[in-house]
Specification:
Layout: H1 2-17, H2 29-40, H3 48-64, H4 73-76, H5 84-97, H6 114-120, H7 130-133, H8 140-143, E1 148-158, H9 163-166, E2 180-188, E3 192-200, E4 214-224, E5 227-238, E6 267-270, E7 280-288, E8 291-302, H10 324-328, E9 333-345, E10 349-364, E11 378-392, E12 395-404, E13 408-419, E14 423-432, E15 454-464, E16 469-480, E17 491-505, E18 508-526, E19 532-551, E20 556-568, E21 572-586, E22 589-600, E23 607-611, E24 619-623, E25 626-639, E26 642-653, E27 658-659, E28 666-667, E29 670-681
Antiparallel strand pairs: 1-2, 1-29, 2-3, 3-4, 4-5, 5-6, 5-7, 7-8, 8-9, 9-10, 10-11, 11-12, 12-13, 13-14, 14-15, 15-16, 16-17, 17-18, 18-19, 19-20, 20-21, 21-22, 22-25, 23-24, 25-26, 26-29, 27-28
Length: 682
């Protein structure tokens, strides 16, 4: 009902006003393809929320736009694929030969090629920014320049009934309907951003349209003289290399091997998603140009499990509120955080200092497992760090040193080297002590979650032999000096990757990928005297993938993949084969379809595939067992101000009589999902 009312309201508004706005998609069709390719190359074990955060950052960047005739190093580094050396070369070329007037003018910069221009095109503008240099508040029109309003409404549902809907609420069943509903309203201009995002997840109740369990909002000013960003509401913080403060999403190890290992910080950014628990809520401000000063305050409510003594477990992210018990724990832990940063930019790079003070309303309890003793406990935690990034000839250096509490320390440092425009090398070393508790961090790491209890060295390599052949590789050797999940003693492991990409023609791309990972895992055994002991054994997951993509003509693209995975012990095998089809039926209508066959011995040999989905829905599908999956996705631009997406998908398992377990269990061997989304733009 709310969607229908929303549609009628905007239809009436647009008809009365006679508005007709013609613009391309937010990210542009070519960049969507590049982003899709990049996500497919990421670590398949990454949580889908990480992909969503990255996509939202690109969305913000596409709206703000960066003018290469004015931007400093810190702004240029926000562009995808732009390195510190690229940013410095651009500024030097600008100072030497004057301003740029078109995208092709950037080709005169050392390090810029057509591929890089394709990546950055959706995020740059060459329009005169005289008004931005003046006081933006002098007139209302100047303050609201390039303004637009967007509204999203999304419906998704699993068609088969889960166990949680079969049970009554008093029996631990789901309280709400199986509908997954999302809506977002946003206005943005060159200097202003206002947003309200609300979400109801499957199984959660929605008494009325004001009582969403997941919601975020913000009002933000940006690029107004010396004021770079000011946010009231929900926001993310991304500083340095992510050791101390980073909740804006980031890719870890991936098939880019060199391009995304060192982080390009985004600073303070307003939050657009409904996942507000993982971010901050309060006020934040960044001011200055070469010398930037940031301060922020957050007061947020988190979800945790309470103990009889009044203590709680560390707050969870992505919690569900579907049952009576889950709702009793809903956002029951207050969290207050103060923080700040000072950053000094020079012609060769920048240096920064960050700090935070955090207090929980109740004490965090220590767990019972051996690795729990190194995790945060108590109420209060403080931390500070210093980070750097600078260029020296063909090499760039980056790093961060951090400390939390009285003794927990962590260090990350690396160097990248460019040999002309064809070869890139990067080396990174990290050492996170067992006592380090960077609860707001998200740095380069083998483990998921915040950085802790890990050391390692990473080497990445990329070389383009010609416009047709590209080779990328990395090797990461890591160890865990203290106990971790599923291991009560120190352990170690390694991972390496080799990617070869071949483009015999502009319309055909073929790549072969090999990835090998080994981690020590604890198991029970016997010593020579027959006594039970805990032993470490190497557990491996090795995969090989071959994929071909062919652009048959302007309307049809096909993509084929075969992937084989081996895991041990025990020795198991997983296979994945898919055929993908994209058809541009009309200039404003696109159809994506895929048929996937999979066969794995168990969960240990599971396989993954990234799927096209509704706008700003990131689906990294995990498949195990034997079966098939099919999906269809239809996109249509109905008017210059309205777009729709429709997706239908079904997975059929050949060797199951039930899917999933617990409250999520489906009786049967099929799981089907449907989704519908509409977007209005003015």
């Amino acid at each position: 009902m709310s969607f229908l009312l929303l549609f009628l309201y905007f239809f009436q508004t647009v008809t009365a006003a006679g508005l007709a706005v013609s613009e391309t998609d937010t990210l542009g069709s070519r960049f969507r393809s590049d982003l899709e390719h990049f996500i497919e190359m990421a670590d398949p074990d990454l949580d889908e929320s990480v992909y969503l955060q990255i996509l939202e950052l690109f969305e913000q960047l596409s709206e703000e736009k960066i003018n290469p005739n004015q931007a400093g190093i810190h702004q240029l580094l926000e562009l995808p694929g732009v390195t510190l050396r690229d940013a410095q070369n651009l500024i030097q070329e600008r100072e030497k030969n004057g301003t740029f007037h078109s995208l092709s003018d950037l080709l005169r910069i050392d390090g810029f090629n057509e591929r890089k221009l394709t990546l950055i095109a959706p995020f740059i503008t060459f329009e005169s920014a005289l008004s931005k240099r003046n006081n933006p508040f002098s007139t209302l029109n100047r303050f609201l320049e390039n303004g637009r309003f967007e509204a999203y409404s999304r419906y998704r549902q699993t068609l088969e009934q889960m166990e949680g809907y079969r049970r009554q609420a008093e029996e631990g069943g789901f309280i709400g309907s199986p509908v997954n509903y999302y809506q977002r309203f946003r206005y943005s201009s060159s200097h202003l951003s206002m947003n309200l995002t609300q979400a109801k997840r499957a199984g959660e109740p929605l008494p009325d349209l004001t009582q969403f369990d997941s919601a975020s909002w913000h009002v933000a000013l940006r690029n107004t003289g010396n004021l770079r960003m000011a946010v009231l509401g929900n926001y993310s913080v991304s500083f340095g290399q992510g050791l101390l403060l980073w909740n804006g999403g980031s890719f870890g190890k991936n098939m880019q091997t060199t391009g995304s290992i060192s982080k390009n910080e985004r600073g303070i950014q307003p939050l657009n998603s409904a996942n507000a628990e993982a971010a901050f809520r309060g006020i934040a401000l960044t001011a200055g140009k070469r010398l930037q000063v940031t301060g922020f305050y957050s007061s947020n409510n988190r979800t945790s499990v309470m103990h009889d003594d009044g203590s709680v477990n560390f707050p969870r992210e992505g919690s569900y509120y579907r049952t009576v018990r889950e709702r009793q724990q809903m956002k029951d832990l207050g969290q207050e955080t103060f923080g700040g940063r000072v950053r000094l930019e020079s012609r060769v790079g920048y240096w920064g200092v960050s700090a935070f003070l955090n207090r929980f309303e109740r004490p965090i309890a220590q767990g019972q497992r051996p690795y729990h003793r190194f995790l945060f406990q108590g109420r209060n935690l403080s931390g500070f760090s210093t980070d750097y990034r600078f260029q020296a000839g063909p090499a760039h250096f980056f790093g961060e040193i951090a400390q939390t509490g009285r003794s927990g320390r962590a260090f990350l440092g690396g160097a990248g080297f460019s040999a002309g425009n064809s070869t890139d090398l990067i080396l990174l070393y990290r050492n996170y002590q067992t006592g380090y508790q960077g609860i707001f961090g998200s740095s380069f790491s083998e483990q998921s979650g915040y950085p802790r209890n890990e050391s390692g060295i990473y080497f990445g390599f990329s070389h383009r032999f010609s416009n047709r052949v590209l080779i990328r590789a990395f090797r990461d050797q890591f160890s865990f000096p203290g106990p971790r999940f599923q291991s009560d003693q120190p352990s170690a492991g390694s991972e390496w990757l080799l990617l070869t990409e071949y483009r015999p023609r502009r319309d055909l791309t073929i790549y072969a990928l090999m990835r090998f990972k080994t981690r020590e895992q604890e198991t029970t055994g016997q010593d020579p005297f027959g006594r039970e002991v805990r032993l470490l054994i190497p557990v491996s997951r090795n995969s090989m993938r071959i994929q071909a993509e062919k652009q048959i003509n302007r309307e049809i693209r096909i993509r084929s993949r075969i992937e084989i995975l081996r895991s041990s012990p025990p020795n198991e095998t997983g296979y994945l084969l898919f055929q993908d089809l994209r058809v541009q039926l009309r200039p404003n209508i696109r159809l994506d379809a895929r048929v996937t066959l999979f066969d794995t011995d168990s969960f240990s040999s599971r396989v993954f595939q990234f799927e096209n989905d509704l706008l700003y829905v990131m689906t990294n599908m995990m498949l195990h067992g034997q079966g098939q999956r099919i999906y269809l996705l239809l996109y249509a631009s109905l008017f210059s101000w309205a777009d729709i997406w429709i997706k239908a998908a079904t997975t059929l398992y050949e060797n199951r009589t039930a899917i999933s377990s617990g409250l999520s269990e489906i009786h049967g061997n099929r799981k089907s999902d449907i989704g519908f989304q509409v977007r209005f733009r003015f």
